[in-house]
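Students often ask what a holo structure prediction actually looks like on paper. The answer is less mysterious than it sounds. You provide the chain, you provide the ligand, and the output is a string of discrete structure tokens encoding the 3D arrangement of the protein together with ribulose-5-phosphate.
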Amino acid sequence: MNKQDQLKQQVAKAAIDYVVPKLKQNDVLGIGTGSTANFFIDMLDGHQDKFRAAIASSEASAERLAKINVAVLDMNDVEQLAFYVDGADESNGQLQLIKGGGAALTREKIVASIAKQFVCIADESKWVNTLGAFPLPVEVLPMAREAVARQLESLGGEPVWRKGCVTDNGGHILDVHGLQIADAIKTETEINQMVGVITNGLFALRKADVMLLGREDGVQIIYPGLGT
Ligand code: 5RP
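The corresponding structure tokens follow.
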């Protein structure tokens, strides 16, 4: 296993230690998507009796949860989640995130929206001063792809269609390169207003509540604005 995966595994274990003791029998857990979230799912095996069920942010995570016999619910049947645990592609010191490298951004944002606490788990390569070096994923309705791309260019970015990628919602992804996102709430709001956009991968209006960051010298627990 490479160093980055070792760090992802460490933060997944830290998330188990952070979340599981706080769970109540009737709680529903929100589970994200990606390789870090997968480590977390695998480590939930053995803890199925500590909570009622899960909501997954992708079909892939739902299948992985089902394999370890975690009940996966429809979100329409759930009002609130005790925790949402998910990775990120970038985080700044405010715990504003870029997500969607795995194309699950829309469902991730929806699941995060009903979580009491969003626990982000990431290795230190994801920690940045300014968001935007990682191309910002924007999910669009397929018919609006080029129209949205032209509007994204007006923000100073260079949108690139992630060819061959169709999301769980039937959407397409534009990855916007070259943005330096100084005001993440403003950029998230502006892109949300573009007709044809389903979601953008900025998580600033609903940022993470706590970050478990895997570093060479151990896992650091970070709260918004407190830095490392
Ligand atoms: C998927 C995501 C993931 O959280 C993000 O891409 C990080 O993935 P990984 O844990 O594999 O590095 O937003 O849409």
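The mean pLDDT is 97.
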